[in-house]
Amino acid sequence: MRTVDVLDHGEAEAPDATGPDRDRDRDADLRRIEQKLDRLAEVVATLDGRRREMEELVTDLAPTVNGVLAMAIRRLDHLERTGALALARESAAALENAAATVDPSDLRELGASAGSAVRTLRAVAAPETAALAGLAVEAIRSARKGPPPRWRDLLRARREPAVRRGLAALIGVLRGLGGLLPERSPATGTAPGRAHDRPMTWAPTTPAVEAPSRPLATTPGTAARATGASTLTVAGVPVQFDSEGFMADRSAWTPDIAAALAAEAGISVLTDRHREVLEFCRTDAGADGPAPGLRRITSRLGVPAREMYALFPGGPGLAAARIAGLPKPKSCV
Amino acid sequence: MTTTMSQPRPAPGSLLARDGQPASARKIAIICSKGTLDMAYPGLVLANAARMMGIDAVLFFTFWGLDIIREKTIDHLQPGIVGNPAAHMPTMLAGLPGMSALAGRMMKKKIAAIDVPTIREMMETLDEAGAEIYGCQMAMEMMDLTRGDLIPQVHDVITAMDYFGKSEGAQTIFI
Hints:
The structure holds 2 protein chains of 2 kinds.
Chain A: H1 2-12, H2 19-82, H3 84-100, H4 104-125, H5 127-142, H6 151-157, H7 161-180, E1 230-234, E2 237-241, H8 255-264, H9 272-285, H10 294-301, H11 305-311, H12 316-323
Antiparallel strand pairs in A: 1-2
Chain B: H1 2-6, E1 27-32, H2 37-52, E2 56-61, H3 91-94, H4 99-113, H5 119-129, E3 132-136, H6 137-142, E4 156-158, H7 160-166, E5 171-174
Parallel strand pairs in B: 1-2, 1-5, 2-3, 3-4
């Protein structure tokens, strides 16, 4: 009906079309639709036939599977009569004795896994599963015998419709199996704090002789390290250092302090090249940025690593930042 | 770690003094025995960090580690993703051809993004930094390699007994 409506609508836009023409078009359309419906009916019939075939197959195979199960039961019965199961029962009793010494939580866990095992077994014994297993056996029997496939063949086979259907079935089976298993809930509650979560306290260090004790400034960033911080007189002025020997306040830096720190690091004279590196470090770090690592200095400033090692013989990674009055670099390279 | 913490810490304001000795008295020896990208970096980064703070460093490359100093392989190291739970990828998937190369490309891109040098650059920097770089003679013979197969930064090809001479008094790290 809808198609006809659409056609009507289409013709309304074409005013040239005459009455008989319209009728003929409509008839042709109706015939086409009838043909399509016929074809659809055929497809439905085929599909139905296939479903019936499948059902028949399942009915045929069910006795076979039942037979297999019956045989298994007979086997168990035979074992029972020959006394093999008595041994198993004795072992079970021994296990029970052992269980008395086991932690209750272990037992609970064992019980839970046993429960899931029983559920799985029950699922396996269900008639639908048995039928499916029968189909699978048939499929394996009828499978083409050939050399083991190469990985290329495997990839190609993945595209075959039959293989895809099989994969879908397998995934369905896996999904069902997964649904039977208990879901693991995420652990709740927080673990008790470990030793290294607590703030570390250092043993008090002996203050340097020339250090006049002065109250520590409460600049942010230095407060955290205040335990090992100290004030030393460098180039005639008191300078605050953090616990690792880096200046606590980079704005207090002067070239005189740099010269004194350099001398301490084994650099007797600060050359122009030294100053270039120090200036780069201070510019790069800015007012509160991190001190550049060696890699950053060599790649940005274009000073070869070899030269950096010659300029700062005690190790350029720390010395450059320290002499530049910056905190310890956080970079690994 | 325990040793360092139990000893008196160096006085603030002194880089040279550490336990009353110059900093260069400390020495580290790193044995690199693996040829994957993820196992190459740790040794090289540690040796470089040691040199940056004035600690002597000896690097000894043996077995698969020789790939790190081989001219043919140094630029093509791949991460070991098969059988590696930290690769967060099923082993069957990781084992497909080209997966290592793909992961390697991604990893190298990431490494470059955080301005970490390539393995070759690391070796050049280590050489300039004065780290001692040695190849293992036995592994070289086993793999039919000669001195000419190695990058020029390698100082020498030495035996296991030579290594113990070179690493005397050093803390050893085996990777």
